[in-house]
Give the backbone structure.
Amino acid sequence: MANHLLKVSDLNVFYGDAQALWDIGFNVEEGDVYSIIGSNGAGKSTILKTLSGVISASSGEVEFLGSRVERKGANVMVDRGIALVPEGRGLFSSLTVLENLELGAFTKRARPMMKESLEWIMGIFPIVKERKGQLAGKMSGGEQQMVAIGRALMSRPKLLMLDEPSLGLAPLIVKTIFETIKALNAQNVTILLVEQNIHQALKTANHAFVLKTGRITMMGSGDELLADPEIQKAYMGTLGQV
Ligand SMILES: Nc1ncnc2c1ncn2[C@@H]1O[C@H](COP(=O)(O)OP(=O)(O)OP(=O)(O)O)[C@@H](O)[C@H]1O
Ligand SMILES: [Mg+2]
């Protein structure tokens, strides 16, 4: 039997009385770029928030590295190796780039590796190195996204979750973000990517599913979904995303 890095089964999540996720199940393998696509309000962020321990599921199981983790809090999840780059990035704008990065290494496991983690991240993102003394709030949107990814990497995650990293960025910067995702993946970081940029996300992902009003409606390889006429019609046709 293959050992999945992440195994999600029958996950149901509510906000008060309103059910946001219905019987969500999927497996992420080490080395994957796994993508979740779906339109506004589908429940994409809710999946990532549940997996990062920010909100808890009412039922279902989450197994990470062979252990059940669905009742663990956010700090434990980061320590176990799941890091989230949240929608909107969540940087501290009045702290410097370096200070933001250092905050990412808050766990017991990551703290002793802080110096080498900084060197690793500055190697990946030269702009972060150049601007390390600058206030994060003064960076451009694309640069802030790099810092946010860098901060998540400071926890030395085994699974990096990105919530709409390309949102609101110019096409050229979007290209850089997706190249970065591929480069990180080549460095053995497994990636769970939430995107509305369907075309780029499916091109980058080896596995993906479509989420529609809290339910998985389609699942397959990135190429399979990319070739699906329904996806082409529903997303590329109406949204014109390429
Ligand atoms: N804190 C909350 N309280 C109540 N309802 C919420 C809360 N957060 C999200 N929801 C609802 O849950 C559903 C899923 O929201 P979620 O943010 O997960 O969607 P999403 O796919 O990430 O959307 P977007 O693309 O706009 O980011 C939506 O109907 C939303 O209104
Ligand atoms: Mg969202």
In short: The chain has a mean pLDDT of 93. The radius of gyration is 17 Å. Residues 15, 20, 38, 40-46, 87, 196 surround adenosine-5'-triphosphate (ligand 1) (CB under 6 Å).
